[in-house]
Each structure stands twice: as structure tokens, then as C-alpha cells.
């Protein structure tokens, strides 16, 4: 019998460069500006205008390349890619087809395994290249009036990252993109929002291992990580097609709960030509390699960018594991959830408790509540308040079950401190041994059968008695003390 | 007064012998009288007078902006002019009014020069005759001079101005402007300069900004300078040259001298005569002038050597592939969406594009777009575009080798013959004509080298013949010094005006064009 069909996924990512002005013109970049309010003569492709390369965008691409372990090409070129579309006013897009700014990188990413959710799987994917290119404008189709409205504000700088087809599932693709997103955000080269700033296209095909790749389709308009994981239902669609003897068409599909065909791929009509108005893009290794006459403040110097690289997510995770002695899985969660790591580290500065005791509160209690309410870490409970709660628990002022109750209450009340809640709701532990003695006596007196069982050596029943005492005290009895008394 | 050189006019302004408004009125008058030449697409008369008045006030206060203050100039209609329509002689841009000035135009205006109007050309600069524009052909001013009328007979058809900057050359030759901007991609400034008997200079690629020049072939386009003397061209070059942040291909100017040396010793000069330029179709008149000037150099003590540029013969074919490919690309923006002509056909965006482009472009443009796209097809790219680029490199290497061997300038004809009669010229199609006409001029564009056409003599038909000097990259100033030396030796006659010229000429039937 022939081997099973497996999916192959390659990703193309368009990341909008986080810069003040556009890639080839001096017009400013601003989110949600009125349509066509940020359009220079060049952006509108007025005849006679020429592109002027924005150095900041080049630096962003170099920095991204370095963070992804790419080789930075000291000399790269710009090309024109021609096609007619209303929001592409020049009739071509300036990109880097022949020789891009960065090549041969690698992105390492991890995700929780399918079978054992707690087991982390580590993988990596080759980055074929990172190229600088111009974003197109935006078309808005008004079907009622059969009009198309064009907004040219968007012609900002893009980094196109091409990943080799090495991933096998939507989950892998989603994890890789999440890691990329974290890296870009750490670098500040792209804000990484998937509803526009980070656009992902997936090339999907199926084959039997060892055989050549099948015909691929391109799935576009994937606008969230969750959709990315699901859009690769396309793999199943293709497997079904192949198994039932239908051919896979080379086409572009859009994601719409399942993938649907968009248009035929116009492979033959992509005309390329070198961009004659931009000289070769030269970057320098270090200040020493700058030729005389070049102003160092105007040149792109790789070493200077390397020195400015911030702590990347992978390094952050290693540091967290080392500093706090937490599990790699925990470090993964801390880094991957927006703001969670900062929360944890602030908390660790204010609490005396061991990191291993604290981590569960952050990755389970806090994160669970956040997810349930679809909220971000923007301070429903401040690290200081949580630290206070942990202290109450540590010093034996409240039980661990009461602590969870207080946590819930803190969430609900918004702003009340743990101590306020403990006092208001009388959740503090009862340490008064006379008081506990009398409660224990009452329980013992009313449950002769159980007492008898304990006396005959059935230790389990002791727990039941303790439980009954806790019920009387609404869980506030010091469990250690209760056990002593009962024994 | 109209026949003076730019430098002479400048001096006359300072000495108060002429006023800018007076001169501006005379030029506008002259433009009217010579309307039949069809040199201008747009005459800016009111704006011209306003600028002239401002200049006059500066001169009266004794604070002129420089040697060009008050000097009338004309601009080929493919340079953007703010608030003045810029058509490229195409229906596509018939009513297009740019919101900005091309850098070279702005620099002239900043110097106080007075814009007279926008000159006629071949549509989008594609042509060598100025016969293929939406506003009709340009007539060569020499068609109406005594020598031509006498030698060719009174019934003789008018002759073409050359192209594609025919309007600019005709404007300078017919004494309506003292300088004009042309563009030069394959010879488009030098060709009409030679046929109209004016100095036509194509600077080194990158020395002048292309920002605001509506492109033909970006990697070869250079703004060209048309004047009545090499000295004038040097003054204009010093104003226009240098780095422009809006054009990433510009380079710093190596020299800021406006003036050429009064005494130029050619005894240390080595003049190369490329043997491959003895081309088929070279007229006996032109060949004779070529020899005469070579002899003049030799007699004055210059070393004159035969040199070889073996790849020159492939230049034209190679040029056509590269040119058409860039044309296909550059013309893509004219789709009727943002500006320019838009067809009333609106059944779909694609139909709107297709009819807009069909209605807006002439056959020449459409033909080049079609073949250009063919050359750029994935399966043809290596075979045509890449191969043409390799040949281009070989052509550049030819020049490099010759200049490295000690040659300072190359002396060649500019065109094969003097100006053709309109009826004869239009017997052949645009493509054939472009291939024939650009044969001597086009290699300088391939290699980015500076080149200048110097009016040399009149042909046996009484029409101008120009010879071309080519120099090393960025050696523009010395090239113009050699051109000035040559200009002073050859004794090219000033334009002798016939009929309509005589009436408005304020000096005599002949006017001095150089000192």
C-alpha cells in the first residue's frame, strides 16, 4: 500500500515596517488617517517622480534579518513587478526579486504537542529571504454603485519574508507565525497586528513523503493566528481531492471558514525588470569598512544594528528558566502571552514566595481568568495586589482554598485589596485553639461512627472529619491545628 | 538683439542696454510670427511677462540672481512645469497640469530665467523627427532660409527639425529662446540640434537630475541643453548640475566652473576617430565635414588617431530591446485612474484601461509597449533583456578602453545626413527612422558618456550639418571647452532669415550667433 498523503506548508509573510515615513517617499505613515490624506506625488505615481529609499526601512529589514539569523547581502537590488490593478498606480510594484537584502535565515519555534498538551515540541523553519517592497494601496469595492474607491495612504514599506515549505500542519504554521510576531514586536520593526500589519499567505500542497511536492494552492487573507491554524484545512481538502481522483488546481484561495477559490494564478503575466531609478542598495559591515566620503550617519552599518538588538523571545525564555527555576513550558506561556512575562517579573520583585509557587497563580489563575473574559493583561489585578494575596497565604493568614476565593473576589470587586476582602468576608484562618477545640468537640460528638472508625485505624476517615470542621468554619480553620486537635 | 548668445544678452541686461520685459515681448512676438514652425505646444505669455517684470526689478536694483536672470528659455513638453500643462505631445496627457516643477526647470526659475513655453516633440519622446506628436510635426527653421530656398528651389517641401526634442531645437534656432531644455535618450537632443544648427549638449548620465522628466528609458535619459554656443551650454550646465535628493541616480559635480577657458590649447589633446562610424548612408557632405574638422584639429597640433569601438554596431538593436522594455514598464502608469485621459468606456476596470490606453497612445507608443512586454515575458527575459544588457556592458567597455588608451575626445558625425524633407522622412515608419537616425548618438546613452553636437557647416542643400564630440564620464567641462574651440574654427553661418523672418528681424537679414 502506498504511503499516506501529508501536507506541506510554506508561508509568505508581508510585514508592514514600523516607520515614520513610507519606503520610497517622504509622506508620513499614520494608522487610520483619512483616505488619501498621506499621499505624495510619488505615491500617486505622478509622471516624472522617482523613488527615494527610506534608510529607516532598510535598517528595519537588516535588524529583522539579523534576528532571524539571516545572511545580510551587502549589495542588493530593487526590481519592478508589473501587473495592472487599480490600487497599484504605477502599474508595477518595486520589490527585491533578484537579490534581496537578507537570505538564508532560520526561525525556531515551539508548540504544545497534540497528544500530550503539556509536552513542548521544538521545530525550525528555513527563511529563504527577506525582501523590501512597496505596499500597494487599498481598494474598496462599492457593489451597489459599481464603483471602486482607492486609498493610497497604505503605500508603506513592507518586508516580505519567505519561508521554505517545511511545515506539515496548521499548528506548526500558527506557532511559527506567533514566534515571528513576538520577534518583530521585540525588535519594533513591525507592530505585528494580523489585521493588516502582518499579512500571511500560505502555500499548501500534499504529497507522499519521498515524492515530489504536489501542485500548490495559495491561501490568502489569513488574518489571525487562530485562522491560520484552521485555514490549513486546505491540506485536508487537497488530500480528499487527491484520494477521490480529482486534480488540485494551481489557484489562489481566500480563507472564509473554509478555503474558497479566489482567482486563477496569473503566473505568465508577472513581468519583472530591474528598477532603473534606484542604484544597488549597499550596506556596510562596520564603520571600518565605510569608504571615505560616506557619511557614517547616512550609511546602514550592520554592526551598529547588531549592537542594538534587543532581548529576543528565545533568550527571554532561557533567562526566565534560569533565573526563576521554572519549567520551559511556563517560560513559553509567559513570553507568548502579551504582557504576562512583565507581570510575572514585577510580581517576583514584590513577593517573597518561591517562583515555583507563584507561577501557577500567573499561568493558571490569572491567565485562565483573562482568557475566559477575552481580556489582556492590562491590570485587572495589579502584581502588587497579587503579591499581597500570596503573602497572606504564605504567612498562614488564609488557607489556599480561601486564597482562590479571595482572588475571585478581587477580580469581581475591582480595586479592593486582598486584606480588605479577607476582613470583609471573614476569610482569615481561625488560629484560636480554644475556639477550634470547641468546634472539633462538636463534630466529634455528632459523628460517633466516624470517630469509631478512626480509632480502629482508618486514617481516611480523619480527613472527612477535618472536612466537616472546615465546613463549620467556612474553610477558615487552620488545617494543621485541626488535625492536631482531632488526633 | 534676438540673435545674441545667452552670455551677450546677460551682459546687455547688466549694462542696461536691453530690459527683460522688452526682450520677453520681442520673443513672444517672434513666437507668434514663427507659429507655422509648430515649435511650441504651449506658450506661457502672461506668466512669461510676469517673470520678466520681476527680473527687471532685480536688475534695476542691481541684484540679479545670476547670469540667467531675465533670459528667455523654452522647455520640452516632457518636463513637468508647475501649473503649466505638460503633454508629452500625447492625447494621454493633453490636459495634464503637474503640481510641481522638474528639478532642472526649478533651477532655471530660481536663477530668474523667464519661461517662454513648452516645446513640441515626438509623443513621449519616441521618435527622431518630431513628426509623431499629437500636436503635429515641427518644421525646421532652416526650411525658410535663403540658402535652402535658393539651392532646393522655391517649391521645395519643408524639412524636419529632427527629434525628439525638435521643438526645443527649433525654438533656439528660430531665435525665440536663448536656451532650451531637451531630453536625450538615444540622441533626442543632439539629433535636432545638428539638424537645426544649434549647440546640443547631452551631459554625463547622473550629472543632471531627472526628477520631473517624464521618462522614456530611465537608465539612459538625460536632460539636454540646447544653446547657440558652447560657452552658453557651459553656463547652463553649471546651474543645472549636481546631486538632487529626489533623484537617487545623481552624482556630485566634479567642477563648478561656469566659464570655459578663453584660450584652449589643443596641442595636448588626443582626438579619436572611431572607424566604425564610417557608416552606410553617411552623406558625402557630412563625411567631408568630418574630415575637414579632423584636419583642423590636426593642423592646430592635436593628435588625431583612428580608434575602434567594435561593439558599436550592435548598439541600436540592443538599445531597442532595452528601450522598449522600459517603455512598457514606464507607460503602465497611464491607465486613466489617477490622471490623464480616461475613456468613457466603463463596463469594467479592464475595459476602461484598454480603451483609455488605446485612445491615449499613438501607434508608436503602443507598438513599443507591445514589444517591450514581449521582451520581458518570463520565457524571453534571458534571451532578450539580459542579453541586451550584456551587450550594453561590452559597448561601455569599448569606450573605457579607448579613453584609457589616452584618447581625450571622440569626433564623429551627429547624423548621417542633413535634415530630410518631411515627405521623404515619413516614407519610412518610426521604428526604421529611429534605428537609422540614432546610430551615431545612441552609444553615448548606452555608456552614459557626455556628448555634444556642434554646428559645423551648411550642406550642399543649404542645411546645417553638425559633428559630435564625445568625452569621458564627468569630463563635461573639458568636452565643452573642446566644442568651443571647434565652434570658433569652423565658422558656422548664422541663420539667414527669409521672408517672414526678415520682417521681424530687428538687426539685419543675418544675425550674429557667436562672438
Automatic annotation (TrEMBL), chain A:
<comment type="subunit">
    <text>Subunit of the heterotrimeric GatCAB amidotransferase (AdT) complex, composed of A (QRSL1), B (GATB) and C (GATC) subunits.</text>
</comment>
<comment type="function">
    <text>Allows the formation of correctly charged Gln-tRNA(Gln) through the transamidation of misacylated Glu-tRNA(Gln) in the mitochondria. The reaction takes place in the presence of glutamine and ATP through an activated gamma-phospho-Glu-tRNA(Gln).</text>
</comment>
<dbReference type="Pfam" id="PF02637">
    <property type="entry name" value="GatB_Yqey"/>
</dbReference>
<dbReference type="GO" id="GO:0030956">
    <property type="term" value="C:glutamyl-tRNA(Gln) amidotransferase complex"/>
</dbReference>
<dbReference type="GO" id="GO:0050567">
    <property type="term" value="F:glutaminyl-tRNA synthase (glutamine-hydrolyzing) activity"/>
</dbReference>
<keyword id="KW-0648">Protein biosynthesis</keyword>
<feature type="domain" description="Asn/Gln amidotransferase">
    <location>
        <begin position="342"/>
        <end position="486"/>
    </location>
</feature>
<keyword id="KW-0547">Nucleotide-binding</keyword>
<keyword id="KW-0496">Mitochondrion</keyword>
<dbReference type="Pfam" id="PF02934">
    <property type="entry name" value="GatB_N"/>
</dbReference>
<keyword id="KW-0436">Ligase</keyword>
<comment type="similarity">
    <text>Belongs to the GatB/GatE family. GatB subfamily.</text>
</comment>
<dbReference type="InterPro" id="IPR023168">
    <property type="entry name" value="GatB_Yqey_C_2"/>
</dbReference>
<dbReference type="InterPro" id="IPR014746">
    <property type="entry name" value="Gln_synth/guanido_kin_cat_dom"/>
</dbReference>
<dbReference type="InterPro" id="IPR003789">
    <property type="entry name" value="Asn/Gln_tRNA_amidoTrase-B-like"/>
</dbReference>
<dbReference type="InterPro" id="IPR006075">
    <property type="entry name" value="Asn/Gln-tRNA_Trfase_suB/E_cat"/>
</dbReference>
<dbReference type="GO" id="GO:0032543">
    <property type="term" value="P:mitochondrial translation"/>
</dbReference>
<dbReference type="InterPro" id="IPR004413">
    <property type="entry name" value="GatB"/>
</dbReference>
<dbReference type="GO" id="GO:0005739">
    <property type="term" value="C:mitochondrion"/>
</dbReference>
<dbReference type="GO" id="GO:0070681">
    <property type="term" value="P:glutaminyl-tRNAGln biosynthesis via transamidation"/>
</dbReference>
<dbReference type="InterPro" id="IPR017959">
    <property type="entry name" value="Asn/Gln-tRNA_amidoTrfase_suB/E"/>
</dbReference>
<dbReference type="InterPro" id="IPR018027">
    <property type="entry name" value="Asn/Gln_amidotransferase"/>
</dbReference>
TrEMBL record, chain B:
<dbReference type="GO" id="GO:0070681">
    <property type="term" value="P:glutaminyl-tRNAGln biosynthesis via transamidation"/>
</dbReference>
<comment type="subunit">
    <text>Subunit of the heterotrimeric GatCAB amidotransferase (AdT) complex, composed of A (QRSL1), B (GATB) and C (GATC) subunits.</text>
</comment>
<dbReference type="Pfam" id="PF01425">
    <property type="entry name" value="Amidase"/>
</dbReference>
<feature type="active site" description="Charge relay system">
    <location>
        <position position="76"/>
    </location>
</feature>
<dbReference type="GO" id="GO:0030956">
    <property type="term" value="C:glutamyl-tRNA(Gln) amidotransferase complex"/>
</dbReference>
<dbReference type="InterPro" id="IPR000120">
    <property type="entry name" value="Amidase"/>
</dbReference>
<keyword id="KW-0067">ATP-binding</keyword>
<dbReference type="InterPro" id="IPR004412">
    <property type="entry name" value="GatA"/>
</dbReference>
<keyword id="KW-0436">Ligase</keyword>
<protein>
    <recommendedName>
        <fullName>Glutamyl-tRNA(Gln) amidotransferase subunit A, mitochondrial</fullName>
        <ecNumber>6.3.5.7</ecNumber>
    </recommendedName>
</protein>
<dbReference type="GO" id="GO:0005739">
    <property type="term" value="C:mitochondrion"/>
</dbReference>
<dbReference type="GO" id="GO:0005524">
    <property type="term" value="F:ATP binding"/>
</dbReference>
<feature type="active site" description="Charge relay system">
    <location>
        <position position="164"/>
    </location>
</feature>
<keyword id="KW-0496">Mitochondrion</keyword>
<comment type="function">
    <text>Allows the formation of correctly charged Gln-tRNA(Gln) through the transamidation of misacylated Glu-tRNA(Gln) in the mitochondria. The reaction takes place in the presence of glutamine and ATP through an activated gamma-phospho-Glu-tRNA(Gln).</text>
</comment>
<dbReference type="InterPro" id="IPR036928">
    <property type="entry name" value="AS_sf"/>
</dbReference>
<feature type="active site" description="Acyl-ester intermediate">
    <location>
        <position position="188"/>
    </location>
</feature>
<comment type="similarity">
    <text>Belongs to the amidase family. GatA subfamily.</text>
</comment>
<dbReference type="GO" id="GO:0032543">
    <property type="term" value="P:mitochondrial translation"/>
</dbReference>
<keyword id="KW-0547">Nucleotide-binding</keyword>
<dbReference type="GO" id="GO:0050567">
    <property type="term" value="F:glutaminyl-tRNA synthase (glutamine-hydrolyzing) activity"/>
</dbReference>
<keyword id="KW-0648">Protein biosynthesis</keyword>
